[in-house]
Design brief:
The structure is a single chain. With 396 residues, this protein is an alpha/beta fold. It is built from eleven helices and 13 strands. The strands form two sheets. It has a seven-stranded mixed β-sheet, with helices on both faces. It has a six-stranded mixed β-sheet with strand order 8-7-9-10-11-13, with helices on both faces. Helix 1 packs across helix 2 and helix 9 crosses helix 10. The longest helix has 18 residues. This is LacI family transcriptional regulator. InterPro entries: HTH_LacI, LacI/GalR-like_sensor, Lambda_DNA-bd_dom_sf, Peripla_BP_I. It holds the Pfam family LacI.
């Protein structure tokens, strides 16, 4: 497959697994910290007397919050009633203690609404996208913003039309998750029009050097190197790759990582026959896996967890056992992947960390602080479960 993706201009590597592992160095300084905590919920203890707001009818005691925060009950009362004379750090400790009991904050201490933020995500039928949306929406809410969720779907409203709708509603910025910026052949002029008018945007999982903005990505190439290394350690040599269409940036990068892993770990460079390009669905994974199994593969790396489920289905359709006869590795670590049969070995995207940094970058742009117009790349993690095992004797 021809590599049409522009390589990074320069990179800085970070040792922490949960931090970005690389960035192109063209922008200003960037803060990676982001607030967290619950905004609402239900409790079970005795009621609090709080003016200017209400709790669940049965709520926790002042003493419980005071003990959690390490302050007096009088201090808790002052914070919950919005009174002055409490140090900012102490006030924050009380609010965090309150959040730990999963209660709605009194109106006096709630973050005021700051405006609307557009959130355009790919097809919600893949559970990784609702996972991104949940973290982004909750984090924006803690900063006073309301997310306007727009879900792309085949045959539905396209990204440009959604963008126009969001602009009509006066959004303060937009976060794009796996949008047109992930398609190397798409027209990216819409993003340039947004940046030209000064609207802050952040783009997640995809990259183009045509757009001057902050990008947040998972290390797609590194993920496939991890998968190949794991399978090679189990004795597999005929390792296939099931991915989406060649024009997508994540596919380009995953393919690069797969090729490098096969060359570095197994000394195999002629792998074209073990790469199957299809679509990012269960059905696409099943079709790709059938091809790869017919070509003698004993293990398959998949572009996402949905494709991995399809690969398992394809193996069983040929009376092959997973992992005894065929090993399968997914990508994303979507919710519930540990509960399918067999539990899926997969590469975990650091969804929470990526989402928090995306929100922080957008809010910094809105505040005029500035976010680096570069790509922040996050290290994935191998999660070994039950869908991979040693290669059968005749596969060695």
């Amino acid at each position: 497959m021809a590599d049409t993706h522009t390589p990074p201009k320069s990179q800085i590597f970070f040792p922490m697994a949960a931090a970005p592992v690389a960035m192109r160095t063209t922008g200003k300084g960037f803060q990676k910290d982001c607030a967290s905590g619950a905004l609402s919920g239900h409790g079970t203890a005795a009621p609090l007397a709080v003016s200017g707001g209400t709790f669940d009818p049965v709520s926790t005691r002042l003493a419980d919050i005071a003990a959690k925060a390490g302050v007096s009950e009088a201090t808790v009362s002052r914070v919950l009633n919005g009174k002055a004379g409490v140090a900012p750090a102490t006030r924050e400790a009380v609010i965090e203690a309150l959040d730990s009991f999963d209660y709605e904050r009194p109106a006096r201490i709630r973050q005021p609404r700051a405006g609307l933020i557009g959130l355009i995500v790919a097809d919600l039928s893949n559970p990784i996208f609702p996972a991104f949306a949940e973290v982004i929406e909750n984090t924006l809410a803690m900063h006073g913003y309301t997310a306007v969720l727009c879900a792309l779907a085949p045959g539905g409203i396209n990204e440009d039309d959604y963008t126009d709708l969001l602009l009509e509603r006066g959004v303060s910025g937009i976060i794009f998750v796996s949008g047109l910026h992930a398609d190397s052949q798409a027209d990216h002029g819409g993003y340039k029009r947004l940046t030209d008018r000064g609207l802050p945007i952040v783009l997640v999982n995809g990259y183009t050097d045509e757009v001057d903005a902050t990008f947040v990505s998972s290390d797609e190439a590194g993920s496939m190197e991890l998968a190949v290394a794991h399978l090679a350690q189990l004795g597999h040599r005929r390792i296939g790759l099931a991915v989406g269409q060649e024009r997508f940036v994540p596919v380009i990068r995953k393919t690069q990582g797969y090729r490098k892993g096969m060359a570095d770990r197994l000394g195999v460079t002629d792998v074209d026959q073990w790469i199957s390009n299809t679509i990012f669905t269960i059905e696409g994974g099943e079709a790709a896996a059938r091809q790869l199994l017919d070509r003698g593969c004993t293990a398959i790396c998949c572009a996402n967890d949905m494709m991995a489920i399809g690969a398992i289905r394809a193996a069983r359709g040929q009376d092959l056992r997973v992992p005894e006869d065929v090993s399968v590795v997914g990508f994303d670590d979507s919710p519930l992947m540990g509960y399918i049969d067999p539990p899926l070995t997969t590469i975990r995207q650091p969804v929470r960390e990526m989402a928090l940094v995306a929100v922080r970058g957008l809010l910094d742009e809105i505040k005029g602080v500035g976010s680096p117009h570069t790509e922040l790349v996050f290290r994935p993690e191998l999660v070994v479960r039950g869908s991979t095992g040693p290669a059968a004797g005749d596969a060695l």
